[in-house]
Amino acid sequence: MLxxxxxxxxxxxxxxIMLVMLAGPALxxxxxxxxxxxxxxxxxxxLYLFAGLTAWATFMLPLTATIIATLLAQLEHGPKTWAHLLxxxxxxxxxxxxxxxxxxxxxxxMSLLTGALLAFGGWLAGELNPANKLMDPAPFAALxxxxxxxxxxxxxxxxxxxxxxxxxxxxxxxxxxxxxSSFLLIAVQLWAAFRFxxxxxxxxxxxxGGFFAIFxxxxxxxxxxxxxxxxxxxxxxxxxxxxxxxYGLVGGIGMSLLMLVDMSRMQxx
Amino acid sequence: MKRRLRGCLRPVxxxxxxxxxxxxxxxxxxRGVNAxxxxxxxxxxxxxxxxxxxxxxxxxxxxxxxxxxxxxxRGRIAIFGEDLRRNRLRALKSVGVAFETPAHxxxxxxxxxxxxxxxxxxxxxxxxDQVLSTVELSHVADRHVRKYSLGMRHRLGLARAxxxxxxxxxxxxxxxxxxPVGIREMRDxxxxxxxxxxxxxxxxxxxxxEIEQMASHVAVIHLGKIVFxxxxxxxxxxxxxxxxxxxxxxxxxxxxxxxxxxxxESRNGRLVxxxxxxxxxxxxxxxxxxxxxxxxxDVHHLAIAPWTLExxxxxxxxxxxxxxxx
Lengths: 269, 326
Ligand SMILES: Nc1ncnc2c1ncn2[C@@H]1O[C@H](COP(=O)(O)OP(=O)(O)O)[C@@H](O)[C@H]1O
Ligand SMILES: [Mg+2]
Description:
The complex is a heterodimer.
Chain A: H1 2-11, H2 17-37, H3 45-77, H4 82-86, H5 92-128, H6 141-147, E1 154-155, E2 158-159, H7 160-165, H8 167-181, H9 183-195, H10 200-216, H11 229-232, H12 238-265
Antiparallel strand pairs in A: 1-2
Helix pairs in contact in A: 1-5, 2-3, 2-5, 3-5, 3-8, 3-9, 3-10, 5-8, 5-9, 5-12, 8-12, 9-10, 9-12
Chain B: H1 2-9, E1 19-30, E2 33-39, E3 42-44, E4 48-52, H2 59-66, E5 74-79, E6 82-83, H3 88-92, E7 95-98, H4 110-121, H5 126-134, H6 150-162, E8 168-172, H7 180-197, E9 200-205, H8 208-214, E10 217-222, E11 225-231, H9 232-238, E12 242-247, H10 250-257, E13 264-267, E14 270-274, H11 281-294, E15 299-305, H12 309-317
């Protein structure tokens, strides 16, 4: 398995995937840096980072996952190397599993990069103009608590005190949730990308999925919509966080296994 | 355990010693059409086995079945006695393959392409340089495949097939798209392989002459069915060659050479004589030339004409096959 994964990494040399991997997180960070630097001041670090996370979870993660899955599959569809790869004395599922592992690895790296670049952008905006400096709310936790009624403890679904006191932890946790709950949509994208030689099909699926996610938010079934699961783990509706995480993660693992079984049986014409 | 027991109980085990590929009633249907229709192949170990048939005959489909890339609708395949369905990985361990259109990662170098297969086969790094020099690609090994000519791509495909020193090499139309020089080089190279590597070679082609020049054994496939299988000499024996003569006086020549059982026809302004056998064809040609000259007839064309694939098919299946344009 290790050899299969190494081989996939060799194929990424000089490919566009590394560019996508950098561009996705950089664009999210750049957007929020521009907002902050241009005076649309989000004031506190947790607000700033959560806004960035939302953009990542709803838009940039699904989009880049679509592109990465498609590129990984097109590496073989393009030059028609599936036949050679699958005629080697290596279990067929391994070929596809290695690509899935690489996709998950790249998206994990992108998640970390998004967090790091967002933080860097926020810091830079403050350095460029002290008026736009983001503040750390933790020292004011005690003050905030005395000013709040019990009713205020939950603001827009968020536990305000937790966000004020331990915002670093919360942001890191949610970044991880977003990632883990995206397994289902990644598995679906990989499957489509492997199955269809025409790259427009997985691309249309990814773009369509992301588009419908906007409407699915309002639906009671939105909880089951793979492209909405990362967003749902952010906690704007706290009762949905664990469900979205479970559906995305467990569903993703299940879907990946189905994908491996199906792809191993596929006939290569 | 169970598998071993079943193997012992079977009275005749498929793939006896000395058989590289054995298929039994192999069938593959595409949308109601039998692309491969009851193929029984028996490829002896050490042979260069030519798999001959016009475009669309079912050669590529058969090869994809042999590699487990397609699932047959019926039939069995054994490679060196290993049943492909039960033991695909073990069967494929002894196989190296080069497909019809050489497919490589264009953005990687030749060496990187080979390294991918080498790692998957868990071979030593030194094998790469060995196969590169075997196919004479060492000098361009570090160039991107994007910049390779078609001939170089074919040779890189061969190099990849040679990795791991497989006991069976399968080449699907290895001269596809090459120029005459490339075709000859490829043919000469393939001819050296059994001696050089000890491998059995299974090579498909739609050129009779090509197979004739490199194969020791041949199977002819037509519309998914095997219409001939045997040693190359047997195939040669099926049809004696003909002699084509262009001369100054067809009528006298015809009268002189004809007679007895020998048929002399006039075709396209040339006389065509069916020889009785391939043996001694050259001596017969020389004798006829001498005879005509002595009779004062000038000979300006004399050729031992090879049979075309069309004519061979006409004889084997009693019908003219539909040949695609190349
Ligand atoms: N993927 C496919 N779907 C439908 N028909 C196919 C497919 N592949 C091959 N065929 C048909 O099967 C027959 C044999 O094709 P093929 O094995 O490619 O022949 P060859 O390699 O001898 O030229 C042809 O009639 C071809 O049209
Ligand atoms: Mg073919």
